[in-house]
Amino acid sequence: MEAVYTTxxxxxxPYHKKLDIILLSRSVWVQGSYGKKPVTAxxxxxxxxxxxxxxxxxxxxxxxxSTYPDIVISNLPRNKRLRIDEKFKLNDDVVPTDxxxxxxxxxxxxxxxxxxxxxxxxxxxxxxxxxLMSLLDTKAWCMCYxxxxxxxxxxxxxxxxxxxxxxxxxxxSGSDLAKMAAGDWDPHKYDIYLSxxxxxxMWAERNGLDKLNDVFDTxxxxxxxxxxxxxxxANIVKINALTNVERTFYMSADxxxxxxxREALYYKMFKYTPVIKPLENITRDMRYTIGVLVRYNTxxxxxxxxxxxxxxxxSHHRYMEYQLSRDNFFVALFSVFDAIRRxxxxxxxxxxxxxxxxxxxxCNLIDHVDLIKEQLELYYQERTSEGETPPKVVRFHSAMPxxxxxxxxxxxxxxxxxxxxxxxxxxxxxxxxxxxxxxxxNIEANQAAGRARALADGTDAYYYMFVDDxxxxxxxxxxxRLQYLEQQKIKSIFSIKYS
Length: 499
Description:
By secondary structure, this protein is α/β, with parallel strands linked by helices. Helices cover 39% and strands 21% of the residues. Helix 3 packs parallel to helix 4 (125-136), helix 6 packs across helix 8 (212-219) and helix 7 packs across helix 9. The longest helix has 24 residues, at 327-350.
């Protein structure tokens, strides 16, 4: 066996059963099934030469040698690094914030080869990366699982820096990667490359695991960025194991995973990666979201409580279906909208020319979206005086046509969506209120709260969390969620209770 180390990972080939000790130690048990799911180590087929490779983050060389005495350990040759051909900088009217300036200074002054930028949503991570790229003056490859976010990267580079848009290459096909791997590519034509991590890892698995570093070598990549690094961890691990880029930076508003078992492996992977985050006093002064616990009790029977648990434990989908069948739930929901409606009417009376605030309602399934939208339309019809126009209630989810989604984004005042559809990369202005109906995990809660952005008039935004006190599971998980939100973005938290 041969173990090959890169700057940000390692691979061992060919795979042998005795490597199971590494693979299984970096995997987690899947609840309700038999077996383990890999998190930070992957057995990947070598479709060119046959067999498999183990791709993971670095093991201690001394431990590896003592555990497998016959293993040969080497380092992958560093890929070629090229300077940016056409230097760029931030536009003269774009001034880095204290957070962006301090983060980039930490990298430059300490010559960091890797770092994790744990920066809250809305604090300009993409602009921070653009600023850092301009200072490092080396060709870069930026990755994010979402093409929507990659579009935002391209827009930021084009509109907020002096970079020529023609110097940005958006890699969307394997044909480009094949040319790069073969050396049939002009490395001086582009300075910044954008892609999803998935297209790189899938191409490598199909065309040769050893070819991916050739791609980066041909393009002269000196730095790679992983945006939203808490997502799509599998492809990050694989790309790190197969490429030998001088610097690797990770970016996310969340430094963790949805489950404790996955999070433990996540922390081990980043054990030696410096985590850069804003000072607490800076983020606290810049926070604008108030958390509101909306507590009520549907008084579920024992059968009701058991019905929301399945083979994989607590089911958020089943829980939400139960909630939508209970009057107590809608009493609490409409009471919140009563308060929002009064606040909006007062604001509009005082500022008639100002844009109206928007409210986002989040639930689990598309079927739930339709039901809640219908109920809210009835709510506003009953409370709108003759001659007045009720706010426009719209749906927003992935199954809708693109044109309808864009209309909802632009014109909706009450937007009902799923957590997944309102994920990273969806930016809707003037959202003042976010209503979270399901007891989602820490990561999803933080992302949901981040949908409310700082308002132009400086008023606070609100994140409403619905809690049915009749379910012990919901009450037990709540303190952990609140603690995480307070650490990340919530300014303060208070509670209102309904019967």
